[in-house]
Amino acid sequence: MYQPKKGSKKLLNAWAFYDWANSVYTLTIASSIFPIFYSALFVDQVEKQVSAFGMVFKSTALITYVTAFTFLIVSFSSPILSGIADYVGNKKNFMKFFCYLGGIGCIGLYWFSLENIHISLLFYFMGLLGYWGSLVFYNSYLPDIAYPEQQDRISAKGFSMGYLGSVLLLLLNLAMVMQPQFFGFDVSIAETITNTGTQAEIDQAMAAAQNEASFEAMRIAFITVGIWWILFSQYTFYVLPKGSSKGQKVTKAIVFNGLKELRLVWIQLKQNLRLKRYLAAFFVFSMAVQTIMLVAVYFGEEEIAWGGPDAKRFGLITSILVIQLVAILGAVLTSRASAKFGNIKTLIVVNFIWMGLCFYAYFMKTPMQFYIAASAVGFVMGGIQALARSTYSKFLPETKDTTSYFSFFDVAEKIGIVIGMVIFATIDQVTGSMRNAILFLFVFFLIGIVLLFRVPRENV
Questions:
Q1: Is residue 166 pLDDT above 90, yes or no?
Q2: Residue 289 placed within a domain
Q3: Are 319 and 377 in contact (CB under 8 A)?
Q4: Which helix (H) or strand (E) holds 441?
Q5: For residue 2, is it within any domain?
Q6: In the chain, is it the N or the C terminus that has fewer CB atoms within a 10 Å radius of its CB?
Q7: Minimum mean pLDDT among 207-221, 281-295, 304-318, 440-454: which range?
Q8: What does the pLDDT read at residue 58?
Q9: Residue 252: strand, helix, or coil
Q10: Which CATH number covers residue 56?
Q11: Tens digits of per-residue pLDDT, 233-279?
């Protein structure tokens, strides 16, 4: 089979297209419809608590802890798996496995309920594990398919394609949730209520039927995410190279060889001052960025005065759309800024903006204030993600062992998320307020800025 050459337009576009496929997970499941769906499960509870694993949790704290646990699993498993992938030469097969695991997990969320909270959380765990597990191998392809001068642009293009594709599916899902009757969902009410009830009773019944239909539409949305993710990833899998096969089978010895290779990479990292210092800075600021992105909608649902369930649902999804659309512009402008001023200087400025957003979020209460924050988050979200990935890729030494190097990048990100989410959930659980938790995150951005100043620039 014909294999496109490194740096070719076809190969670069096929790699970036996986962002189009998998970003629907981050938008619909992680950022918008699932958080709204999950919060709606507690609408009749004043204290919003749930029993799980033999304990009683605040609803937002439980999902945050489960998210942190998933990232802990990813952080420990990805170095082993990436080492095996480089040794055996089949990183694409690992990427496929996690893609399909995540897609099935998304589909399984259709049956999410508090009555079966443990199996429900398992499906949530599968989706999250699949998404981040596949990214370990997806990111490691970047230096394999693109030359250093191409990496900033193609990384930004991948994020932009992801934002665009995920917005298209979210628009469909939004229409389903807001106007379920147009998609065949039942919004009828009992005939006895229509014939004998008062106007107030009829209106109440109609509102309840509308909410039930919207709730079912959210469940269907989870299925569309799984199908979209699996379907559109096929082009990426078709074009991307499998890897340099060494004719080895996965054995116990190879697992330990993968760990040995990882140890060698760690030794080399310690000898590379620029890469080592950059990883330290990335670890800290990514901790805060990813935590905010994962809890933003839960924060908006709980802390903002929307004025009613319908207004809340519409407002939250609108905010997510704003974030995604602005993020496309943010990723492009950040890429251009890095080309003009350098990656490190640009990252420092973006971190200052994030730090200011933490203070702003603590005081915001109205929907308009939330929309303003969403616009600002969108602008810096795409930029910092794309630039962080391409900066690390530029700092790598000449090597064919890119997967093991990128596993360090991903492990730093995942462990950072675990720490950030646990701190956030604990502050939320103890104080009963997500505002206190999000304010605390500014400390990580401040430390990240200080560490970025210590990275040797060398025109990057």
A1: no
A2: yes
A3: no
A4: none
A5: no
A6: N
A7: 304-318
A8: 82
A9: helix
A10: 1.20.1250.20
A11: 998 888 888 765 555 566 666 666 656 766 777 787 777 888 888 88
Distance of CA 66 to CAs 61, 114, 128, 221, Å? 9, 15, 10, 22
Measured between alpha carbons, how far is 448 from 301 in angstroms, rounded to an integer? Answer: 29
Q: Which token pair is 423?
A: 């701190």
Q: How confident is the model at residue 36 (pLDDT cuts 50, 70, 90)?
A: confident
Helix 402-431, helix 252-271: angle, nearest 10: 80
Using alpha carbons, select from 209, 268, 258 the residue that is nearest to residue 403. 258
Domain membership of residue 3 (yes or no) is no
More confident residue, 244 or 179: 179
Residue 56, strand partner residues: 51
Residue 459 covered by a domain: no
Residue whose entry in the numeric block shows the structure tokens 């589909």 = 107
3-state secondary structure (DSSP) of residue 51: strand
Residue 453 contacts residue 447 (beta carbons within 8 Å): no
Q: 205 lies in which domain range?
A: 9-453
Q: Residues 341-349: what's their mean pLDDT?
A: 87
Give the integer Cα–Cα distance in Å for 114 and 129.
21
In this prediction, residues 279-300 reach a mean pLDDT of: 85
Distance CA 341, CA 334 (A): 10
Q: How many domains does the chain have?
A: 1
Asked if 222 and 34 touch (Cβ cutoff 8 Å), the reply is yes
Contact partners, residue 9, CB within 8 Å, separation at least 6? none
Q: What is the pLDDT of residues 78-118, one digit of tens each?
A: 777 766 666 666 788 888 999 999 999 999 999 998 888 89
Q: Which tokens belong to 349?
A: 């400025």
**Angle at 175 (CA atoms; ends 177, 128), nearest 5 degrees:** 60
List 49's β-bridge partners, or say none. Answer: 58
Give every CB contact of residue 402 below 8 A, 6+ residues apart in sequence: 86, 140, 141, 142, 143, 144, 396
Distances 119 to 37, 99, 105, 124, 298 between C-alpha atoms, Å: 17, 20, 11, 9, 21
pLDDT at position 197 is 63
Q: Can you tell me the mean pLDDT for 201-225? A: 81
Of 92, 350, 362, 127, the closest CA to residue 225 belongs to 127
As a whole number of angstroms, the distance between CA 307 and CA 310 comes to: 9
Cα distances from 434 to residues 365, 427, 446, in angstroms, run: 12, 7, 20
